[in-house]
Every structure is written in structure tokens, then in C-alpha cells.
Design a protein that fits this description.
Elements: H1 2-20, H2 43-57
Length: 61
């Protein structure tokens, strides 16, 4: 159901963030917003999208 998709999206985003967290500059708060398709993509795809966004914003060490 919908809760299953929401929870999977949450788990995928959380894991991607935990993997990139050591590379991020300190002093920032992050808000990740799941879209409908987030529940259907792999954690690797979410990680790569998060990494690209952080690089674009200059948030990586």
C-alpha cells in the first residue's frame, strides 16, 4: 500500500544520506523530499542524485 511505498522511499533516502554524510561540510541542515518515483528507484540512483546535487551546491569537502 501507500505506507509501504512511503517507508521504502524513506529508507532509501536515509541510507543514501548516511553514505554521503562523511563527505559533507558541517554546519548545514538537509531536508530531503521524496517524489512518487523515489519508491521505485534503487538506493544507488538516489545516492548519485544526492551526490550530484551536493556537488552542484558546493557542499562536499
Amino acid at each position: 500500500g501507500k505506507a509501504v511505498k512511503r517507508n521504502r522511499a524513506r529508507r532509501v533516502m536515509r541510507e543514501a544520506f548516511y553514505l554521503i554524510e562523511p563527505e559533507l561540510m558541517a554546519g548545514y541542515d538537509f531536508v530531503l523530499v521524496a517524489r512518487v518515483r523515489t519508491a521505485f528507484v534503487s538506493m544507488q540512483q538516489v545516492f548519485e542524485a544526492l551526490r550530484r546535487a551536493c556537488e552542484k551546491l558546493g557542499l562536499l569537502k
